[in-house]
């Protein structure tokens, strides 16, 4: 039976790092979307700290991708529900390319971003598509009675959650810096999720805006 109880604490996590998240000094970052690598090991201290950050959560929801499921499995023995709305953005034909490679192969994509547009990746998604999925996910949380929910997802999805909550222009969401394996707290009421994290975390997440 569905419930209309929409006052909830949401604890979002970006998955632990994978080999695909490591910066290449010559080629830049990799577009890691629907590819499915495993996570790299976490230190016991880091895992314990994150466990404390999600203490009290009774529901665990993950992107279907392995790196998110494996991350939550380090933190709980509870059942993990998967939701495709939490998948990383579909980079389409760009998935797996490094930044420099993508710039050389798809210059029109980068030109559109410079104009403030929201183009779709070739055979993939754009920011609006991810926002639509995120809002569908938030709306779907009314189906659960749980008051505290841990959610493991990806960089672009969490940028979307924060950008939407903080009223940042969509064309600037790419500047939001999402840490791996660090709890990011939201308060959900009436289908709107508000970021309620500490000021110190907010400064780190928005560090790329400080000189603007």
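Q: What amino acid sequence fits the structure above?
A:
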């Amino acid at each position: 039976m569905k419930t209309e109880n929409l006052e909830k604490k949401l604890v979002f996590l970006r998955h632990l790092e994978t080999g695909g998240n490591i910066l290449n000094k010559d080629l830049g970052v990799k577009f890691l979307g629907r590819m499915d690598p495993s996570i790299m090991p976490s230190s016991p201290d880091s895992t314990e700290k994150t466990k404390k950050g999600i203490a009290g959560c009774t529901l665990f929801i993950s992107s279907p991708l392995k790196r998110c499921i494996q991350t939550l499995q380090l933190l709980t023995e509870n059942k993990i529900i998967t939701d495709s709305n939490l998948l990383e953005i579909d980079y389409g034909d760009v998935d797996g390319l490094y930044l420099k490679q993508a710039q050389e192969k798809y210059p029109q994509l980068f030109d559109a971003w410079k104009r403030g547009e929201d183009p779709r990746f070739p055979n993939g998604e754009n920011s609006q598509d991810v926002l639509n999925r995120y809002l569908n996910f938030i709306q779907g949380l009314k189906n659960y009675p749980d008051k505290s929910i841990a959610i493991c997802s990806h960089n672009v999805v969490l940028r979307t959650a924060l950008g939407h909550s903080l009223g940042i222009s969509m064309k600037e969401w790419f500047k939001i810096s999402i840490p791996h394996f660090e709890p990011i707290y939201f308060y959900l009421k009436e289908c709107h999720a508000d970021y309620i994290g500490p000021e110190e975390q907010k400064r780190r997440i928005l560090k790329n805006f400080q000189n603007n």
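Q: And what stands out in the fold?
A: Residues 118 and 127 are 7 Å apart (CA to CA).
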